[in-house]
């Protein structure tokens, strides 16, 4: 174990700002990117469903 | 070969009829180069140091200006489609067009560069290296640029997109071209840079017309 | 015999059959990514010792190096799929290339970002014209160019093919650019500080980096598969099989 306390862990030996600045942005992008990719599929699925509904209403 | 000559002659003739386009690129080059001392200050030592870089970046940008018009007029009036159907291979015709583009935009830059180099107090040896480097480098710029011009043919916002695609690919030409002059000034000798530039040119002569042809066929499908 | 194999291979190369396969594969890749991330982060923060020169600041390499590796690797894979799509006219491989591009651009961005945040405490500057950083920047521009070109072309097939040519031209150019930037950098001594020349690369550090690289790799596959499913639906919206999908019918 490297760290004596949680505070020491977050301080990163004085480099906390840089270490968490890097890891934070990395984590943020890696959370946002899959959400965006998923949303892209949800959007097209929604419009496909709407189209299908319109077609079934037309034929009725 | 006849077909290539015919294309070059035709494009040069067209360029002569529309002199303003050729002159615009040339004056753009002069103005961009002349703006730098105004922005940086008139210290001769500093200007001499940054001259190769400035001249080369300005040459890149001036070449970019003409690229959008490389295939666009022929595309608009249907000539390009005729070329695809012509008995001569499209690759040769494209090479002819690239050569004509270089003669109208690259060659004037090469001839003008020493005059602008004097503004930056480059000595005769450095001016000579600058001309040789541009002589090897500007055809390279035309060849790589042609790929971008063919890829963006007929697209909206094509001009800006073209520069986005092509400028990163110009990096090696810029490094070796400007580096040759700097190496000469610092006494290292420009031989290595110039031979690498020549090697890149040889590579581009092989591949660029081929890639340009493929891109044109896709654009015309 | 061999004929059969080819047919089987091509069966999965159609968007229609790949769509559900990708859907089943995605959770597995997420699972692998999660495992590698947990192990990798544990090694990065709790196992790897403090560097005696760079202190705790060096821990940024555990994401910087994997991001840099992935940004280059994804470009190669993207060019491979794009080229395959151009040569064999397989739609799915072109869609795969299109799905990889944003992930590659994000990796290139991350390698730049983490490089800057490492450079600031180590060199005292956010940006140094180091050969690696400069080539990473140009690689980022190449990704942006690929994405912008495909976005500017309305016809999907033309976008695929034009993108493929650009990606292949890029692949030829990346080593040339890297070499020229390195040459430029050594000529202008002074700013040449190499990022990866860690003075004492302990084996635990190397392991941490490798496992984090695996995590990044699995993550990239999972995101690219998610995105390729969206692209398949967008491109095939007019087809019968899409209209018959359970998630559309519900």
Structure description:
The complex is a heterotrimer of chains A (about 60), B (about 220) and C (about 250). Chain A is about 85% helix and about 0% strand. By secondary structure, chain A is mostly helical. Chain A has a domain at about 20-60. Chain A is rod-shaped, with a radius of gyration of 23 Å. In chain B, α3 packs parallel to α7, α3 (about 45-65) crosses α8 and α6 (about 90-120) packs antiparallel against α7 (about 125-150). Chain B has one domain. Chain C starts with a helix and ends with a helix. In chain C, α3 crosses α6 (about 155-185), α4 packs antiparallel against α5 and α4 (about 90-125) packs antiparallel against α7. Mean pLDDT of chain C is about 85; it is low at about 190-195. Chain C is an all-alpha fold and about 250 residues long. Chain C has one domain (about 20-190, about 200-250). Chain C is globular. The chains are: A mainly alpha (about 60), B mainly alpha (about 220), C mainly alpha (about 250). The interface between A and C is medium-sized, with 30 and 39 residues.
**Mean pLDDT figure of chain A:** 86
So what's the overall shape of chain C? globular
Please bin the fraction of helical residues of chain C: over 70%
Based on helices, strands and strand pairing, what is the structural class of chain A? mainly alpha
Task: Please describe the structure with a list of short key phrases separated by commas or semicolons.
heterotrimer; A: 60 residues; mainly alpha; 2 helices; rod-shaped; C: 250 residues
Provide a concise account of the structure shown.
Chain A is mainly α. Chain A has helices at residues 6-11, 16-59. Chain C has 250 residues and is mainly α.
